[in-house]
Protein 1
Amino acid sequence: APTGRDRLRIAIQKNGRLSEPARALLGSCGLSWRESPDKLFCYGDNAPVDLLLVRDDDIPGLIDSGLCDLGIVGRNVLVEQSSERDESGTPANFRELRALGFGGCRLSLAVPNDWDWQGAAQLQGKRIATSYPALTRAWLREQGVAADVVVLNGSVEIAPRLGQADVVCDLVSSGATLVANQLKPVCDLLQSEAVLAGPVAELDPQLAETAQMLLRRIDGVLRIRD
Ligand code: PRT
Ligand code: ZN
């Protein structure tokens, strides 16, 4: 759909783990912005590429609606929101274009240390605390297991100790948070990292040309980093 814009708009996380590396990557592509990083909108100085600084969870929706053309977001967020859309039967107009090599983590199922883990069948009838309900339900369906998904938007790892859930499904990087909560990872549902996301549909020709230019530069930067 025509946006009526002639400047490419990229959504990145305002405050969080991906904010600095996302800006650094775009900076390495030779882009710079007039506004300071604490502003919500950064006007591109030397190319028709502007930034919108938002909550990471809003990035897929901004692309879906065409308010932004590209975004940098964790694959975990992108896959969760497309799983949600699959559940509701309305396909998403966003997809992963490139893996960016930072923000690495995994979405793991973790159980209390004293469990003797035999496999997914053990989860039958259990309660799983997670911030990724659609991804977790999709995985449970694949495994043919019926379990209750308890949605928590923070402090997921404490749920078993509080008696809110039996096990958790959460992001893990070093594993220290699981250890501190007497949990152990037994199965990975998703390998995640920051990704460049874009629409499934074609961009307007002028925006598409700018996006192609940016993708070529990103590919160049990623090659050098490897
Ligand atoms: O405010 P906003 O909504 O934008 O930010 P947010 O709080 O939702 O996200 P943020 O900044 O915490 O994370 C952004 C993205 O970074 C995530 O979506 C992931 O793609 C990626 N990432 C990489 C991580 C981690 N590593 C990570 N370890 N996100 C979260 N964690 C958390 C995890 O949830 C757990 O609580 O860190 C804890 C575990 O860490 P370890 O090292 O103890 O295993
Ligand atoms: Zn978030």
Protein 2
Amino acid sequence: MTLALEVNGQVHKLTVDPSTPLLYVLRNELGLKGPKFGCGLGECGACTVLVDGAPVRSCLLPTASFVDRQVVSVEGLGNASDPHPLQQAFIDEQAAQCAYCIPGMIMTAQALLARNPQPSEAQIKQALLANFCGCGTHLRIVRAVQRAAA
Ligand code: FES
């Protein structure tokens, strides 16, 4: 089945099984390796992308659910030579250790800052509560979001 999927501002016509979780299509069909497979159960947040501006766990829902929606992965914010201010804040605070969780953290934080440009520390922690970091760099991650909001 051919689906038209808008990702990072580009429409892609893809021949995929519509029941395939979005994460697999992003990574395997579109080569977007930012969203990560962590748990595959919607619990860790490593696969988070924005869908119409809201953070969504891309491992959970079938790709067919995202037709006529705007999907943005971490690659859609910026890149190494032209990072988004939030990505730059994560770099400046050296928020990444292994970095596996960071794309999901950034996309969740981006959704927070879009709806609340000056969040309190408690609001940042609440927004990122369900994003797991196995390295324990949460304090630096919170500082990065604070830096981006400043
Ligand atoms: Fe999707 Fe963990 S891989 S929430």
